[in-house]
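P.,

For your records, the input lines for the assembly:
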Amino acid sequence: MGHYVPHTDAEIAAMLASIGLSSVDELFSAIPEALRLASGGLDLAPGLSEFDALARMEDLAARNRPVGRDLVCFAGGGAYDHDVPAVVRRLAFRSEFVTSYTPYQPEVAQGVLQALFEYQTLVCRLTGMDVANASLYDGASAVVEAVNLAVAATGRPAVWLSQGVHPHWREVVRTYARGTGHRLLEAPLAGGRTVWPSGGEPPGAVVVAYPNYLGCVEDLQAARREGALLVVAADPVALGLLRPPSDHGADVVVGEGQPFGTPLSFGGPYLGLFACKRDHVRRLPGRLVGETVDAEGRRAYVTTLRTREQDIRREKASSNVCTNQTLIAVACTVQLAWLGAAGLRELALQCARGTRYAREALLRIDGVTAASDAPVVREFAVRTPVSGEAVVERMADEGFLAGVPLTGSGEYGADLLVAVTERRTRAEIDAFAAAFEKVVR
Amino acid sequence: MTAAAAGGRAGGRATSAPLVGREDEPTLFELSAPGRRAAHLRRTAVPEWGAEELVPAAHLRAVPAAMAEVSERDLVAHFTRLTHRQFSVDLGAYPLGSCTMKYNPKLCDDAAALEGLAAVHPAAPAALTQGWMELLAALEAALCEVTGMHAATLQPPAGAAGELTGLLLMRAWHDERHAAGGARPRTRVIIPDSAHGTNPASVTLGGYQVTQVPSDGRGLVDVAALRERLDDDVAGIMLTNPNTLGLFEEDIVEIARAVHEVGGLLYYDGANLNAILGVTRPGDMGFDIVHLNLHKTFAVPHGGGGPGAGPVAVTERLAPYLPGPRPERSADGGGWRWATPERSIGRVHSWHGNALALARAYSYILANGGDGLRRVAEGAVLNANWLRHRLRGVYDIPFDRPSMHEFVASTATLKRRRGLRALDVAKRLLEEGFHAPTVYFPLIVEEALMIEPTETESPQTLEALAEALVKIGGEAGEEAHHAPRTTPVGRVDEARAARRLVPTWDAGQAPPPQPLPPGAGG
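Structure tokens returned:
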């Protein structure tokens, strides 16, 4: 058989004989003859040795330009170039974590369960919430689930969505609203801050980003509405420095967990962070791990409040999530434990320092202007004399991924979004500004 | 933190006690020693402004977020001990029905770790990501060949996300016909009583109502009952084929014709695609929309519960509704560019889906090739049928017909005779060194044990698994209720976890446990 099917021909023959069959084809006798593929089978190339297969993958990889020394990354916009220490790769990617599945048998899954319990605790401490789930797919899916929770909890199908929420996440919310029928109202930004409507249908959810897509730290209090749940889409790195959303009355905090332990990965797999107040635990989407005891009274962990979930509640479930992003949550846990309290604060501070340094350097360039004067901590938007796309294209030749273009969207009144992580040195930022000046001239 | 709260274990000791002594493993929070740290960040030479100089004080945290404080050495010891408390495919057979816990080739790990794939920014312009776009396009083409479909989206990050994407495609198709005039609004989606729970949950989120169709005496969709439920308000039907009993829906052509006659669409839940790779294709059966679970069929490791990937493939008439953007060849024949289909339902993921999981699946397809994929199905079906035969006479086999990649056994008779429940068999099997099958699913079988050995287990492993199951089947239920006894913890009190919810370490430190809001609980 194939590479990964261990049976010898003799073993196959013996197994077939023992169940009264004489050929492998007879295994498929339940499939009507007319539906079976012709003898040629699938029109796919024959199998390769692992070396040839890897060479093919290397050929494809060689046609990308990864970030690194040759393409210094100043792009963010929901995907950030942070340092990942060796312990994350060595621990989170141990095969016991990689090749297990959802802990349906807790007695042999205490490793994953405890790691998730620690993850939930860290997410709660970071956000100020009471309960966090064991992860969702990405930032976008976390916003979708938060909106669904808020609408169900309030019975109000109207949803206010700040345009400071990542444009792709908003698009995903719009896609899923086709099924749920939620009525979405997008509130524009002005000067880097959301302009909320003063009247209209009372919303069940108000969704605001913290900091927002342009990097600005908004006043969360301004987003609170009587009777609505306040959903804060928070950047978890920024929370190392900023007051937790709980201080501002957040009911649900969601976010993209990629900055903690996951490389850029062309956008996935990432990590949907989801935490809420205890009042909403009955509607929490996805898996939740709880502490309990075993038959001898020893501490143990198990997935709990399972009656919320799709496999039990079926069409009445609060969410359809089954498989989540556990492994990425484990990586996030290792990264946060590696950082510790002081390291997390330093990380956020170092991002904020680099962001200020880079922003000041770019704003000294003729024709480059600020998109807003709101405070920024890890990212900022600028207007440039040429389009954002043109800046990015030209800067790639100079060895920089200059940012995420904003020109085309029209929503933001800015051209380029620039992010600075703790990886960026003063020398890199200086070189970046020099090249920037050259390409926008 | 007080010494009592830390359980006297602050500043962890690097010993294997939790492994050999069956003690519990301290949490990170108990291992914490204030001020201890592992992290040292890069030196950047950027001016070291204070936080107050960077952000208005009103926005700043008063105190740092209380992360755990451990050394790198303690961190490594802690997580290493956790892995010793965790069963995995790499360790042993994992016959968890419907989850396809096959061995995951290490090649795929190496492929996904390539710097040229893992360090690419998802918003980088297409000129810098041509290799990724070609990879995605090649994977899409391969998945379309495997399923007999025309086009696919790789964005859905899991099977349930694929289901919802498929239902929104179904909705977009019908809504457009309804808006064009004439057609009655379609409100219902038909689902067999043997379906996965994600199916009905996804139907609700798609804005449809579930109509259940029963299984017949063969364990297959009752076609007469299906016909009674079909009308022009039916949006479609969701089927898993082979179904969750591991049986091929032999009447699928007739079912497809009947659903299409009322204008409905057929949705294929790809959970069980492993059984038919290279043998038959959903497209040839008449399906319109197919999701694949790359973490099942295409060996993306399950990661303790994810990440997976749930691409959705469709027929030509549904392709204009697919989520975008998707890679396509530039008109000038040059490189790849992003394009969103004209009537797209919109994005279903922040970026391009679980890209590194997609890369793993593509490397698996390259290594297996068309010939190898068919052998995957042959091995999976051979192993399941062999084991089904081997367990006859010990366990009930409620639908004892030629099965595909999995089959469902039952302890209904053993329960009546000796009190042996499916749960007991599962827990006893853990003591024997195997992961348990899926239990109590599908719902239509009493005391169900859903067993999927997968193609990567050898005849010798199967024999050992069979011997363990036969031995357990001969035991008294009363004794088995105490299992497992040789695992890192004994039988876990699930009811207590729901009754006294402790979802964080901090919640556990605050006696007495807070009551749950009304109606919560397991």
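Two observations worth noting. Chain B touches chain A through 214 residues (CB under 8 Å). Residues 374-494 of chain B form a domain with the Aspartate Aminotransferase, domain 1 fold (CATH 3.90.1150.10).

Regards
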